[in-house]
């Protein structure tokens, strides 16, 4: 099975030796996204809500570049530096996804790249 590298300028470019996403067959593995603005590669200004929205927007851009949408995500992993923001993630996520929701994990971590408060990665399954 061949691998296809997915890349878009509508999401932040990789800040290390990795691809935004890799497609293998009908499965797309999306690398972690933090709340970076694609145009400037700077962290989004604002509170945790703004950061969570930016991460979902970044993931959506990579999904689109791979030929899918957020609703094609089968598994979503969320990393938070403060699990007190878990309810905020749930609230915002409900605006980006529709049922049936993906499988998901939410993990509290000590720190994230660029001092982000949230990072998400995903596995997407598409039919085309």
Query: What's the tally of helices?
Result: 2
Question: Which structural class do the helices and strands define?
Answer: alpha+beta
Q: Assign the CATH architecture.
A: 2-Layer Sandwich
Whole-number mean pLDDT: 97
Which class in CATH terms? Alpha Beta
Q: Give the low-pLDDT segments.
A: none
Radius of gyration: 14 Å
Helix content: 10-25%
CATH homologous superfamily caption = RutC-like
Total strands: 6
- Can you tell me the number of structural domains? 1
What name does CATH use for the topology? 60s Ribosomal Protein L30, Chain: A
Q: What's the N-to-C terminus distance?
A: 15 Å
How would a textbook summarize the main sheet? 6 strands, mixed
Shape: globular
Strand content: 25-35%
The ordered string of helix (H) and strand (E) elements is EEEHEHEE
Q: Which sequence of strands runs across the widest sheet?
A: 1-2-3-6-4-5
Task: Give your account of this protein's structure.
The protein is 23% helix and 29% strand. It is of the alpha+beta class and 128 residues long. It has one domain (3-125): RutC-like (60s Ribosomal Protein L30, Chain: A, 2-Layer Sandwich). Strands 1-2-3-6-4-5 form a six-stranded mixed β-sheet, with helices on one face. Helix 2 (86-96) links the parallel strand 4 (73-80) and strand 5 (103-108).
What can be said about this structure in brief?
The chain is of the alpha+beta class and 128 residues long. The chain contains two helices and six strands; from the N terminus they run βββαβαββ. It has helices at residues 48-65, 86-96, and strands spanning 3-6, 21-24, 27-33, 73-80, 103-108, 118-125.
């Amino acid at each position: 099975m061949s691998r296809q590298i997915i890349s878009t300028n509508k999401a932040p470019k990789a800040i290390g030796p990795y691809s935004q996403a890799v497609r293998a067959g009908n499965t797309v593995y999306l690398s972690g996204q933090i709340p970076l603005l694609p145009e400037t590669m700077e962290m989004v200004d604002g509170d945790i809500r703004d950061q969570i929205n930016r991460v979902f927007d970044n993931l959506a851009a990579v999904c689109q570049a791979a030929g899918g949408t957020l609703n094609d995500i089968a598994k979503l992993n969320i990393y938070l530096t403060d699990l007190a923001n878990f309810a905020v993630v749930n609230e915002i996520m409900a605006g980006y996804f529709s049922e049936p929701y993906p499988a998901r994990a939410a993990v509290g971590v000590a720190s994230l790249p660029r001092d982000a408060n949230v990072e998400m990665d995903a596995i997407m399954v598409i039919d085309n």
